[in-house]
Amino acid sequence: MQxxxxxxxxxxxxxVPAFDDSAPIAVMDAECALCSWGxxxxxxxxxxxxxxxCPVQSPLGSAILQHYEINSLDPESWLxxxxxxxxxxxxxxxxxxxxxxxxxxxxxxxxxxxxxxxSWLYLRVARNRYRLFGKGDMCAIPDPDFQKRLxx
Length: 152
Fold this sequence. Notes:
This protein is α+β, with helices and mostly antiparallel strands and about 150 residues long. It has helices at about 35-45, 60-65, 90-100, 115-125, 130-135, 145-150, and strands at about 25-30, 50-55, 80, 85-90.
């Protein structure tokens, strides 16, 4: 289920700690190997260094997901916040690709797939991500520049 909220609605949620939302933020499962790969890809393609990554396991990540009614203990979704607007699931992936440009534009091909099928496919992968791709620890990636992107 996708919940639509007004832009910056999390600012009025007392459960969400105040944070710097002046740049885009990807809220991702830091224990998922596929998400860790996605975070490294964002890091390599975002030459501006603006896009930040917030692990769902952090207090901030958990609070943001809860605000958008996503179970932070077993997230089937990841979230992308840009200019206060949230994008979830495959729409988040597409939006990040657009934001990154260059090689990131390859994900725009997903727009050719009808939205219901994209959503179904995303949910299947998300629910089976540990079994298909294993676990990883994005927070343990030693690159200091990558670590600067992480919001905890």
